Amino acid sequence: MLHMRADATVDEIMTELEDNFGNIASNDTLLSRFLSAEQETGESVTQWGLRLEGMLLQVARKTKIDDEERRSMLKKRFWRGLKSEELRNATRVHLENNVTYEELRNKVREEEFEVKLLKDKDNRHKIGKVSQLAVETDACQSNELLQQLMKKIESLDRKLEDLKKEGHTGRQIGNDRAVNTTGEYRQRGFQRGGYRRRPNYYQNNRNNDHTANSDKLMTNQPASKEHLN
């Protein structure tokens, strides 16, 4: 590029740059690449159009193509290479009405915008449904947990009542045992006391013997007097 004239035109400079740094693929390769190009995932309509224009420009620099044919090729490839079938169906009528490439591109952009709005609306609606479902699920889970908790509380209450009943029964049994034991002790004490209060047979026998002797003595005294007389 150092040998270029100072007054070189833009086309001359672009040609020189293309010769030094441009694509060195053959015309057939460039044309085949252009005709098989498609919109990539995540690539907007505008980005797709600009990329396709650059590919056709490379073809036009190595092949003599008039302006009308170039625009026709660009329009057809642009529409056919759209990734979204929904966009193709929505803009087919514009392609068949023989509009220019720029008009077709703008129509496709409009449809792309409308489709995006509808998708965003659907997504928000789905998110709302998912959120509502999540809330309902949480509510159901909360109700289930509450029911389980109530059941556990009722079970604990029943166990507590059973323990209270067992404790009352145990105390009653203990009291009954204590009463029975006290009664037994009292009965034993009464029996022992009765034993202490038994009559003194030995003393009674002595008293009886003494009384009998006295009676005998009294009986014998008159007889003695008679004998003396």
UniProtKB/TrEMBL annotation:
<feature type="compositionally biased region" description="Polar residues">
    <location>
        <begin position="214"/>
        <end position="223"/>
    </location>
</feature>
<dbReference type="InterPro" id="IPR026523">
    <property type="entry name" value="PNMA"/>
</dbReference>
<feature type="domain" description="Paraneoplastic antigen Ma-like C-terminal">
    <location>
        <begin position="6"/>
        <end position="76"/>
    </location>
</feature>
<protein>
    <recommendedName>
        <fullName>Paraneoplastic antigen Ma-like C-terminal domain-containing protein</fullName>
    </recommendedName>
</protein>
<feature type="region of interest" description="Disordered">
    <location>
        <begin position="163"/>
        <end position="229"/>
    </location>
</feature>
<dbReference type="Pfam" id="PF14893">
    <property type="entry name" value="PNMA"/>
</dbReference>
<dbReference type="InterPro" id="IPR048270">
    <property type="entry name" value="PNMA_C"/>
</dbReference>
